[in-house]
Design a protein that fits this description.
Order of helices and strands of chain B: EHEHEEHEEEHE
Largest sheet of chain A: 5 strands, parallel
Number of strands of chain B: 8
Radius of gyration of chain A: 20 Å
Strand content of chain B: 25-35%
Strand order of the largest sheet of chain A: 1-5-4-2-3
Structural class of chain B: alpha/beta
Helix content of chain B: 25-40%
Strand content of chain A: 5-15%
Strand order of the largest sheet of chain B: 3-2-4-5-6
Largest sheet of chain B: 5 strands, parallel
Helix content of chain A: 25-40%
Largest interface: A-B, 34 and 30 residues
Number of helices of chain B: 4
Oligomer: heterodimer
Structural class of chain A: alpha/beta
Shape of chain A: globular
Radius of gyration of chain B: 16 Å
Low-confidence stretches of chain A: 1-6
Mean pLDDT of chain A: 91
Low-confidence stretches of chain B: none
Number of strands of chain A: 10
Distance between the termini of chain B: 5 Å
Number of helices of chain A: 11
């Protein structure tokens, strides 16, 4: 098959802060680029040279397994050198500010900063004080753009396109930066998004988002093409957003019984880590409709594409500065 | 704009390539034809079509995207390179790889293609077939099978148009 794509589109962003900034064309360009990176992970030498000689810093101020390892592996597969930075083992524990830490790292000659921070807006702040590319790996309750990109990549792979799909995002929307980025990415690509969860787990000003809201999973399960089960983030919750774990699971868990009422080809997603038996039953998470592990594999290709593209934009910018 | 080859001359050049490949490579060879995106892919399809009764009907074919292996990736340039997918669904190790591109110029694309290939395995041998060798090589690379050997001034570019992507078969110099 010949795939002729237009060469006219130019990627110009040296930072990836959030999906809300991106146009539909930009999102689709990242997904198309990611397709070219998928095969690197399947061949005998799982490495290609485009970031050879570049340095990527993983600055993680919050715990993470999937995202952090995925970014590290993505950078390695593009032949970049990676510095792993954690809050505990750094001068941040001595009181150094975020910007000072980043400037010091930059003085060593880094090219890309991948940052996860518990304060929303931290990646954006960084772009104003350093020259390196900044990629947001999750900031507070704000955005987690690469998770949303890998989610829409996985849906596109499973369903061909997002146009006209009904997608349910279920659970703890209020504390979820994934949900926020997903909403932007999915609606920009033409899907209809329904947020499902108890009122206590809905974000403030939900009526301003381009979504429908339902407080009953049973009321909407039959019409969904895709269902994204979010993790209940106990570590971020103050107070008691629901009376008991058992009650939450009864009303909002994706159980085998509930799956019987869903469309036969419904695509089941979860950003991980899973609370098995709470938001999703094991039989469903490991069942034939689940693409949960595909999401993880695709995350690698999407992150390679993002690192590649921001570096290309930085290369281009250096030319414009010279001339 | 000069026309280097018209549609009939392209067909004749491809016939010529096919005949030389047949006389050079034994029919029982463990061969695979790999085109370099994007015009090399089309030339590879045409060569593969004409060679399939000589080698075998199931002659292995693939497409190589060399963007990630370009030596100018971290140099600023006028047009941004686009990454596309490589489609090689077989193990290249031990095989005779017939690498196909439309134009041989500096040799840099071929260098990139060979690096990309060897990251997938260890081919038994690699041969290069091109429609046009326009001279001005910058790397010590030459083609084994050439449709048209010519010299084109360094400030001109050779553009191969194929019906599949450009609605016409024509090779021009601009």
């Amino acid at each position: 098959m010949m795939s002729v794509k237009s060469n006219k589109f130019q990627w110009t962003r040296k930072h990836l802060i959030g999906i809300s900034d991106l146009s539909r064309q930009e999102i689709e360009f990242i997904l198309d680029t990611a397709e070219g990176f998928e095969q690197i992970s399947t061949r005998s030498i799982k490495k290609a040279p485009p970031l050879r000689g570049k340095v990527v810093v993983n600055m993680f101020f919050e715990d993470s397994t999937r995202t952090r390892n995925s970014f590290t592996l993505a950078a390695n597969r593009l032949s970049a050198d990676v510095i792993e930075f954690t809050k505990k083992s750094s001068s941040v524990s001595k009181g150094e500010t975020l910007i000072d830490t980043a400037r010091n790292l930059e003085a060593m000659g880094i090219d890309i900063v991948v940052i996860r921070h518990n304060a929303g807006g931290a990646p954006k702040l960084l772009t104003r004080s350093i020259n390196a590319c900044v990629v947001n790996a999750g900031d507070g309750f704000h955005e987690h753009p690469t998770q949303a990109l890998l989610d829409v990549y996985t849906i596109r792979q499973a369903r061909g396109s997002l146009e006209g799909l009904k997608i349910g995002i279920v659970g703890d929307i209020a504390h979820s930066r994934v949900a926020r980025s997903d909403i932007y990415a999915m609606t920009k690509l033409g899907a209809e998004v329904i947020l499902v969860g108890p009122p206590t787990l809905m974000p403030a000003r939900v009526d301003e988002l381009p979504v429908k809201v339902s407080h009953s999973l049973d009321a909407v399960i039959e019409e969904l093409d895709v269902i994204n089960m979010l993790r209940i983030q106990f570590e971020r919750m103050g107070g008691n957003p629901f009376p008991s774990v058992r009650e939450y699971s009864h009303f909002f868990g994706l159980t085998v019984d509930r799956m019987k009422r869903a469309k036969a080809d419904i695509t089941v997603m979860h950003p991980g880590p899973i609370n098995r038996g709470l938001e999703i039953e094991s039989e469903v998470a490991d069942g034939p409709n689940s693409v949960i592990l595909k999401q993880v594999a695709n995350g690698l290709a999407v992150r390679m594409a993002v690192l590649f593209l921001v570096n290309q934009a930085a290369t281009q910018e250096s030319k414009e500065k010279q001339s | 704009m000069d026309i280097l080859l018209n549609a009939d001359q392209i067909a004749a050049a491809i016939d010529d390539l096919v005949n030389r490949i047949k006389s050079d490579i034994p029919a029982d060879s463990d061969i695979a034809i790999i085109g370099i995106r994007s015009r090399g892919e089309i030339l590879a399809q045409r060569l593969g079509g004409q060679l399939s009764d000589y080698f075998s009907d199931q002659i292995l074919r693939g497409t190589l995207d060399i963007t990630l292996y370009r030596d100018d990736l971290n140099e600023p340039k006028d047009t941004q390179p686009t990454v596309r997918s490589t489609e090689i669904e077989f193990d290249v190790s031990g095989k005779l790889i017939l690498l196909v591109d439309d134009v041989l110029h500096t040799g840099r694309s071929v260098r990139a293609a060979m690096d990309a290939l060897t990251d997938m395995g260890r081919p038994g041998a690699v041969r290069l077939a091109v429609l046009v060798d326009r001279g001005q090589h910058e790397y010590p690379i030459s083609a084994d099978y050439v449709g048209l050997q010519t010299i084109v001034d360094a400030d001109k570019s050779v553009c191969v148009h194929f019906i599949e992507t450009d609605q016409e078969d024509r090779v021009i110099v601009e």
